[in-house]
Automatic annotation (TrEMBL):
Membrane-spanning residues: 28-46, 58-78
Primary location recorded for the protein, binned into one broad class: membrane
Protein family: Belongs to the UPF0410 family.
Protein name per its UniProtKB record: GlsB/YeaQ/YmgE family stress response membrane protein
UniProt keyword Membrane, yes or no: yes
Membrane disposition: Multi-pass membrane protein
Record keywords: Cell membrane, Membrane, Transmembrane, Transmembrane helix
Keyword Membrane: yes
A Pfam entry, by short name: Transgly_assoc
Location relative to the cell: Cell membrane
Length: 81
């Protein structure tokens, strides 16, 4: 999957992660989508580099959602100051 495909999946992943993550998010939709794209990049290329899955497998989407949820949680903890 190319970079454009990863960005598109990141948009979807950001929205899915927003609905999965419990609690009240004070961030906007744009920040959620940006964190989804970042989580998608990290999980997609990190998982492939580690040999966990190959491009195009469903595990990549699941990994991207988990990565985005982790980034949303970290962002929520950092921005609570």
């Amino acid at each position: 999957m190319g970079i454009i495909g990863t960005i598109f999946i990141g948009l979807i992943v950001g929205l899915v992660a927003r609905f999965i993550k419990p609690g009240d998010d004070s961030m906007g939709w744009i920040m959620t989508i940006v964190l989804g794209i970042a989580g998608s990049f990290a999980a997609t290329y990190g998982g492939q580099a580690l040999g966990i899955y190959k491009a195009g497998q469903a595990a990549g989407f699941i990994g991207a959602v988990i990565g985005a949820v982790v980034l949303l949680v970290i962002y929520g903890l950092v921005s609570k100051k």
